[in-house]
Amino acid sequence: MFAIETKGLTKYYGKSRGIIDISFQIKEGEIFGFIGPNGSGKSTTIRLLLSLLFPSSGAGKIFNYDIVKDGPKIKQMVGFVPSEVNYYEKMTVKELLEYSARFYKVTLNHHYNRLVDALDLDLTRKIDDLSMGNKKKVAVIQSLIHKPRLLILDEPTSGLDPLIQNRFFEILKEENEKGVTIFFSSHVLSEVEKLCHRVAIIKEGRIVNEDNISSLKEKLLYRVTYQLRNETKDVPLQTQGIISTEKSKNVTTFLYQGKMTALLKDLSQLPIEKITITEPDLEEVFMHYYQDDSRKEVN
Predict the structure, then answer these.
(1) What is the average per-residue pLDDT within 4-31?
(2) 217 pLDDT more than 90
(3) Which of 118, 124, 125, 162 has its CA nearest to residue 140?
(4) For residue 13, what are the contacts with CB-CB under 8 A and spacing of at least 6?
(5) What mean pLDDT is reported for the chain?
(6) Distance of alpha carbon 230 from the chain centroid
(7) pTM metric for this prediction
(8) Contact by Cβ (8 Å): 47, 53
(9) Rounded distance, CA 197 to CA 186, Å?
């Protein structure tokens, strides 16, 4: 059985594009990344899966339940962390989580207490007094208190500091080891690379690529910027995989796809003063790797 299966899922808002012909399958027990820039259709897809919106055409199932006809049954099996968290502001954290637990008819037990401790959450504070990061912690715990079969996460790490992010990823891995399927939507490549088994990349409402993480990593771009000593004349690198080179005085920037060992070997021959190697933003990734797909798209 597939945890999630969609066929031709499409949503228009009037004449405006939401998503177009989204089709994928996620096996039960898989961690599936859904990645794309803001406005690409990630949240629309999630709202359709949760029956918060209804499709213009196409179909989707969660554990073989239809996302249109069986919304209430699906919600019982799913934990959801939205990208933006809003709650009853005058409740304390404890009151809110107890209120949520009653919807699922569950008792807050050791599992709940362990999550509270791991995320360092103060149960006595009012929701209105919480930072965005602490509200996100509440959402994470709320999504897990009923021990769901499927977690749907929409930009779940926004607002979390690096230490809590690491703890959050540990929690997700533990839940996955128990058999929980995870649908992880993000615009951060490194998060998906760290956690997911497979990934689908969405651009302008359409899936432009679907692959396993090991294959995706081979295709990833890196942005390299280096500065030579002022008196040094720049010598162009001949390393295969360098694209989109830009130069300004003694500073060179380019995008690179290939084995890092080969690039570092060639860079070591230059009199470099400073160097940075980072991930490019997703728009750059799409620009250089999915131009052929974008030409095929119908506006």
Answers:
(1) 96
(2) no
(3) 118
(4) none
(5) 89
(6) 41
(7) 0.80
(8) yes
(9) 14
Round to whole Å and give the CA distance between 168 and 147. 16
Tokens linked to 154: 């929409």
Q: Which CATH superfamily is domain 2-217 in?
A: P-loop containing nucleotide triphosphate hydrolases (3.40.50.300)
Chain-centroid distance of CA 189 in Å reads: 8
> Which residues, other chains included, contact 86 with Cβ-Cβ below 8 Å and sequence gap of 6+?
135
What is the amino acid identity at position 108? Answer: L
Phi, psi dihedrals of residue 47, rounded to the nearest 5°: -65, -35
State how beta strands 198-203 and 31-35 pair.
Answer: parallel
